[in-house]
Amino acid sequence: MANAMHEMTKVGYDNLVKELENCTGPMRLEIAARLKEAISYGDISENSEYDAAKEAQAENEDRIKEIEEILRTAKVVDADDLESEGTVQTGVTVRVKDLVYDEEMTYQIVGNTEADPFNGKLSNVSLVGEHLIGTKQGDVVEFSVPEGTAKYEILEVL
Q1: What single-letter DSSP state applies at residue 1?
Q2: pLDDT at 1
Q3: CB distance 132 to 141 below 8 Å
Q4: Could you say which of 15, 40, 77, 141 has the lowest number of CB atoms within 10 Å?
Q5: b/e map of 79-89 (b: 16 or more CB within 10 Å)?
Q6: Rounded to two decimals, what is the model's pTM?
């Protein structure tokens, strides 16, 4: 993940900033309190509360480093500032028709850290997202997927 650019929407960036603030503030304080309480029980060599708190501390510190790296290398895309000229790119919403299953779907193309396909947010580096990037209304994209072939028509770039 080091030195990779992380393209994301402004909302995704702001959410990561909030998560970082939580991890470096309230979460650290909560873990410190758990550690203090576990230490108060005495011998920590067989203290499961202490072990759990240390594990939570390590996970929190790892997440802090991960978020800091993502934010350091972030390229924020604000949908309001995009001049997409009808081209699918990170930050835009696109309406497509799945020509294999004859279904229409609407997706927002977002950064990898904010993807939520079940809620219509496709990662720009996902299999579908990568194939939609750069297309325009009327284009048809076809590509291999584990189940066979996917084929999408771009109905509208919003």
Answers
A1: -
A2: 45
A3: yes
A4: 40
A5: beeeeeeebbb
A6: 0.76
Q: How far is CA 93 from the centre of its chain?
A: 16
Element (H, E) at 7: strand 6-9
Place of tokens 């990037």: 133
Q: Which residue has the tokens 């084929």?
A: 151
Q: Which two tokens stand for residue 92?
A: 């835009």
Per-residue pLDDT of 18-52, as tens digits, reads 999 999 999 999 999 999 998 898 888 888 899 99
- Domains in the chain with CATH codes: 6-77 (1.10.287.180), 79-157 (3.10.50.30)
Condensed to tens digits (0 to 9), the pLDDT of residues 65-123 reads: 999 999 999 999 876 666 667 899 999 999 999 999 999 999 999 999 999 999 999 99
The pLDDT assigned to 69 comes to: 95
The pair of three-digit structure tokens given for residue 12, joined into one six-digit string: 């995704």
Number of H-type helices and E-type strands within the chain: 4, 7
**Type of residue numbered 86:** G
Continuous H helices in 1-158: 10-24, 26-40, 48-72, 127-132
Residues in the chain: 158
